[in-house]
Specification:
By secondary structure, the protein is mostly helical. The chain folds into three domains: about 25-55, no CATH class; about 70-180, no CATH class; about 195-395, MetI-like (MetI-like fold). It has helices at about 1-35, 55-60, 75-90, 95-100, 105-115, 120-135, 150-160, 165-180, 195-225, 230-240, 250-260, 265-270, 280-290, 295-300, 305-315, 320-335, 340-345, 350-355, 365-395.
Length: about 400
């Protein structure tokens, strides 16, 4: 008997294990891609060797001006120009870099300039040395910036150089000056996105949407579950029919409506169209059908108003469904992309999915930072699931067992 049971269970567990591996493989790949540097992004299927693990993508995501190997377009040419400017004592970023580098770093630059090539390990060591120099707030003087075609940001920082810059601003100016001085050798820095701003935007929009949707969905579900009124079945049928209409079909009329209401490029334009969830109403209706009518009548006899019965009796009893609906609603609003992409125009109001989408386009293709940002973006949902998992499971299984 035991052998027969094992013969059934072993293949079953093997299939389940294979299914789990298949489902988790994309997530593991995503995490691994976030910890690869520019050189390794497409070289390893999953995690690179421990010595190659890097937080470069996370630094890019938050706008670090640090130089990376992938941004060095011509390493031998870069070394030749730094050595030439340094030995000539010329002003400018290249000459100043040479003057602050250690002797071993100068020797490394001279060797690469002479050989015309360098292996990946040598390139990493040189880039690390250059970054240690670029972070110095005293690296450049006003005379070193003369004649450089600085970007608007670089010019703004250069104008404030005499009055003093914060360490991160000085680091940014050093990098921009190096780009301007050696445009053929140093690629444009990926300034990243205001990741923290986009996270706060998404938290606000998702949090406000969840609270409003939960209030109206639970209120509507209570009415459908506990009140009898004329044409109730017809109204429920129409509500169910609206769930069968694809959301994309409603984009054009909804856009025109939001435009005429003056809610374009605003958080209201994101929150108002989703204030009422028919799906949520039916979820709460199913949960509140199980509340004994005698409990509600007792509350009315104690002097509760109808809203008081809903707020003080029906809603607390439906706590498992509240947890389940909050998680489902939060995921939908947190991951929303199409409608925010249409309605939002100003970068300061972008939500996280729209912000991450800016990392890959015609101007830049920062795939590593995109993977790192995507990994960070799923963490709030994971945390919320573990916080609400008990209510989530209870809410979705409510009414599944009688007795």
């Amino acid at each position: 008997m035991k052998l027969k049971t094992l013969a059934i269970q072993v293949p079953l567990y093997a299939v389940l294990f294979a299914a789990v591996v298949a489902m988790l493989t994309p997530l593991v790949w995503l995490v691994a891609a976030g910890f690869k540097d520019s050189d390794d992004l497409f070289h390893y299927m999953f995690f690179p060797p421990l010595s190659h693990l890097s937080i470069e993508n996370f630094e890019k995501l938050f706008g670090s001006p640090a130089l990376t190997s992938g941004e060095v377009q011509d390493l031998p040419g870069l070394c030749r120009k730094i050595e030439k400017a340094g030995r000539a004592g010329a002003a400018g970023p290249a000459g100043r870099l040479w003057s602050v580098l250690a002797e071993e770093d100068r020797a490394r630059i001279a060797a690469i300039a002479k050989a015309g090539e360098a292996d990946a390990a040598e390139e990493r060591r040189l880039v690390a040395s250059l970054n240690r120099a670029l972070v110095r707030p005293d690296l450049l003087a006003k005379a070193d910036l003369a004649g450089l075609a600085l970007s608007e940001e670089g010019q703004r920082l250069a104008d404030r150089l005499a009055t003093g810059l914060a360490p991160d601003e000085a680091h940014r100016l050093n990098r921009l000056a190096l780009e301007a001085a050696l445009p053929a050798e140093i690629g444009r820095s990926t300034s990243g996105i205001p990741f923290g701003r986009y996270v706060m935007n998404s938290l606000f929009v998702a949090g406000a949407s969840v609270l409003i949707q939960m209030f109206f969905a639970s209120l509507g579900g209570f009415a459908l579950a506990k009140y009898q009124f004329r044409a109730k079945k017809l109204i429920m049928t129409i509500m169910l029919a609206t769930m069968m209409i694809p959301g994309q079909v409603m984009l054009a009329p909804l856009y025109e409506l939001i435009y005429k209401m003056g809610m374009m490029d605003s958080y209201l334009g994101l929150i108002v169209p989703g204030m009422v969830s028919v799906f949520g109403m039916f979820l709460f209706r199913q949960a509140m059908l199980q509340i004994p009518d005698e409990l509600l009548e007792a509350a009315r006899m104690d002097g509760c108003t109808e809203f008081g019965v809903y707020w003080n009796v029906a809603l607390p009893v439906s706590r498992p469904m509240i947890g389940a609906f909050c998680l489902i609603s939060f995921m939908g609003n947190w991951n929303g992309f199409l409608w925010p992409q249409i309605i939002l125009h100003h970068k300061d109001r972008f939500t996280l999915p729209i912000g991450l989408n800016q990392l890959v386009g015609l101007q830049q293709q920062v795939y590593g930072a995109l993977m790192a940002g995507t990994f960070l973006s799923i963490l709030p949902v994971v945390v919320l699931f573990f916080v609400l998992q008990k209510e989530f499971i209870s809410g979705l299984t409510a009414g599944a067992v009688k007795g």
